[in-house]
Amino acid sequence: MSRLPDAVLDDCLCNPAAPLAGDPARQYGLDKAQAQAQLLTLKGWLRERLTMLWANRHAALLLVLQGPDCAGKNGVIRRVLSGLDPLALAASSFQAPNAEERAHDFLWRYRRRLPAPGTLAIFDRSYYEALVSDLRDGLCETADLAPRQAAIRALEEELPSLHIRPLKCYLQISCAEQKRRLHQRLEQPNKRWKLSASDLDDHRDFAHREARWAEVLAASHLPNAPWYVIPADHRWLRDLLVASLLARELEQLAQDWPQRPAPFSADDLQGIACEPRR
């Protein structure tokens, strides 16, 4: 297993005093070829451990991916989780709530997609959007933010009783890198479909939105549900960091293959005659 060392992963722990003060382009002395090779090896280990998670059907993991437009939430899902046991994975992408979802409590749609025992759920955006995007989009009032923050804290404090381990990652990119990636989307038809008019407004408002997210990260960095701020200007480092954090969570579960008695013997199996094919 070749995850990144704890010192590197712990360097990504959110600092509530200055959540987004780190350099989103830092590289920890790694290069692209080295990181990609390390990720390929690590995915083999993750594949086995996620299948083991599914076989035991006891604990569950919740990977929360937040970040600005173009930070790579979809990219992490594709590059880190592709090829892993699909039975153990459940990815959900949360856009603006639809009419049915707005008819319920704001946490309703997230609670419905919490991971079942033995699975890893991935939230591409999460209930934290209720503290940022919902206010921008006129779906809540400023007075709603404190009760919503309390409800989110209560949900995350409930997760251990459900045997769910949260892993919250904020993918941090610079304004210049976001602009570069938006240009790429404009120029490439296979990426242009991702664009919306609001992306330009959000980019224009980059500093204000980053400041709001810093407030949210600081207020919701909890001992049982900490935030990791992932430097994401380099996709290859972003992917290896998230994969390594996921590997560390799986390590801490200290799993093994289920020790169950065999439901039948080799003699029972051997005693069944296979009829010739017709």
Textual characterization of the structure:
- This protein is α/β, with parallel strands linked by helices.
- The protein has a single domain (6-270), classed as Rossmann fold, CATH 3.40.50.300.
- Helix content is 46%, strand content 11%.
- It contains 13 helices and 5 strands.
- It has a 5-stranded parallel β-sheet with strand order 2-3-1-4-5, with helices on one face.
- α3 (73-81) crosses α12 (235-252).
- The longest helix has 25 residues, at 32-56.
- It starts with 5 loop residues before the first helix and ends in an 8-residue tail after the last helix.
- The mean pLDDT is 95.
The unreliable regions are none
Number of helices: 13
**What sort of overall outline do the alpha carbons produce when their principal axes are compared?**
globular
- Residue-averaged pLDDT: 95
Q: What is the beta-strand fraction?
A: 5-15%
Distance between the termini: 48 Å
> Any idea what the CATH superfamily is called?
P-loop containing nucleotide triphosphate hydrolases
Estimate nothing, just give the exact number of structural domains.
1
Return the string of H and E elements: HHEHEHHEHHEHHHHEHH
